[in-house]
Design a protein that fits this description.
Largest sheet: 7 strands, mixed
Number of helices: 13
Number of strands: 25
CATH superfamily of the largest domain: Spore Coat Polysaccharide Biosynthesis Protein SpsA, Chain A
CATH topology of the largest domain: Spore Coat Polysaccharide Biosynthesis Protein SpsA, Chain A
Mean pLDDT: 94
Number of domains: 2
Oligomer: single chain
């Protein structure tokens, strides 16, 4: 029967029409939570990894083309960009030349189809909050859907649980806040529950490439598809060398007990191991969240586990209304998509360049993407034309929310091609044609304006 809290939570999910596979998966993690599972991975249980580089791999044009023709693309698109003050799909944000993330993603795929004669279906994993806006924005691309396959499937949702007794929280002020997504590890559950995994296999696809919709570097590159196909690995993740900006993020390691690869997230690192987490010389690689998996291997792994992969639990403690810190404290049960790497004995990692990892998580990232650090090629991939990607740190009091950010760059982003750092403390509005050279810091107690065509430099 389960505990009263679990019974209430699963009843709430059934009343909301949540898929039964998702309910069973939630119940699995709920029981782990009840028994005190934290999902922590102590430093003593892992060791650092060395991985091969894509630069050292030989893939013929024929292998690359053949692999792409049996590859499907899934974009994780459930995020609303709430951390940037948005209330609709973050992928609708304008990036360059009037194009949104969705516009560029669609055009990247359409170009590859034409260049390689590949069907290359593009499917979005939306949330119930992003579905309508996303499909409306994609409607202009009439040749984007692939016959017999949907353009989207929906991620699941689950109740937020009170930390006091693990019962589903009630929040009449805004009932939508009672629900949360189960983390992007839900993709495997949603693929089964929606029937999409079987449908892709029936239509002759061998593998899936999954990435975040806010990472325009995550193009379904034929050479990477060819590498994965010839590797024979059931599951693989593209990794990049960690930099100072990745210190607080997760990293790859190898588990000492069985030698399997693991992805340790920040939330899974005990406080006493925080220094080891930040050590870029010890743990050198982090995930791009660009993931490849063999559809047959995934189907088999799910089948032998009763539809539940058993990814490591992430116990995420928040308030029921993230904007109201006085609202009740809740637990969100989550899993990470990349954590599936430990499920497969012969899983692989491949080091790729930073050009395949250009995520936009904050307006700091958005400013870099809108600047001249990158150019958009004819195939709609991004070309880093600057010698380095500058570090940008904008005052959150004035720039964190997209609407306020846009007000301060009414004529577009400044030139950052020659910049190494731009830190803004205070309220600065930029005119047209501003150039930033080297490391620049701006400070002001009141509102200030940077005049058009100004050149900002460390000594200027």
């Amino acid at each position: 029967m389960g505990s009263p809290g679990l019974q209430k939570a699963t009843a709430k999910m059934r009343d909301a029409g949540v898929d039964e596979v998702a309910i069973e998966t939630f119940a699995h993690y709920y029981r782990l939570l009840e028994h005190g599972e934290t999902g922590m991975i102590p430093e003593a249980a892992i060791e650092p990894v060395d991985i091969p580089s894509l630069d050292d791999v030989e893939v013929s044009d024929e292998q690359a083309s053949a692999a792409l023709r049996t590859t499907a693309v899934i974009k994780l698109n459930g995020g609303l960009g709430t951390s940037m003050g948005m209330d609709r799909a973050k992928s609708l944000l304008c990036v360059r030349r009037g194009m949104s993330f969705l516009d560029i993603i669609a055009r990247q795929v359409l170009h590859l189809r034409q260049a390689y004669g590949a069907p290359l279906p593009l499917i979005f994993m939306n949330s119930f909050r992003t579905s309508g806006d996303t499909l409306a924005a994609l409607a202009r691309y009439t040749d984007l859907p692939v016959e017999g396959l949907p353009l989207e499937f929906l991620q699941n949702r689950e109740p937020k649980l009170r930390t006091s007794d693990l019962s589903p929280v009630s929040w009449p002020k805004d009932p939508e806040q009672e629900w949360c997504p189960p983390g992007h590890g839900d993709i495997y559950t949603a693929l089964v529950g929606s029937g999409l995994l079987d449908l892709l296999l029936e239509q002759g696809y061998d593998r899936v490439f999954v990435s975040n919709s806010d990472n325009l570097g995550a193009v379904p590159e034929p050479r990477v598809a060819g590498w994965f196909a010839q590797s024979g690995a059931p599951f693989a993740i593209e990794a990049v060398r960690r930099t100072a900006s990745d210190r607080k993020g997760g990293h790859f390691a190898r588990r000492r007990t069985d030698g399997r690869l693991v992805l340790r997230e920040t939330a899974q690192t005990p406080p006493e191991d925080a220094a080891a987490l930040r050590d870029l010389d010890r743990h050198r690689y982090c995930s791009t969240n660009n993931i490849w998996f063999d559809l047959r291997a995934m189907k088999q792994a799910l089948a032998v586990r009763g539809g539940i992969l058993g990814l490591p639990l992430i116990r995420n403690v928040k308030t029921v209304d993230p904007a109201d810190k006085t609202s009740p404290e809740v637990v969100q049960i989550e899993t990470a998509m990349g954590a599936a790497i430990e499920i497969f004995e012969d899983a692989a990692l491949i080091e790729v360049g930073r050009d395949r990892f250009i995520p936009v998580k904050t307006t700091n990232d958005l400013l870099v993407l809108r600047s001249d650090v990158y150019e958009i090629r004819e195939d709609f991939s991004l070309d880093q034309v600057a010698g380095e990607v500058p570090y940008v740190d904008l005052d959150p009091d004035h720039y964190k929310v997209v609407s306020e950010f846009d007000k301060r760059f009414p004529e577009g982003a400044p030139s950052l091609r020659e910049a190494s750092r731009l830190a803004i403390d205070g309220d600065w509005t930029f005119g047209r044609g501003v150039r930033v050279i080297g490391a620049v810091e701006l400070q002001a107690a009141g509102a200030q304006r940077v005049a058009p065509e100004s050149v900002l430099s460390a000594g200027g």
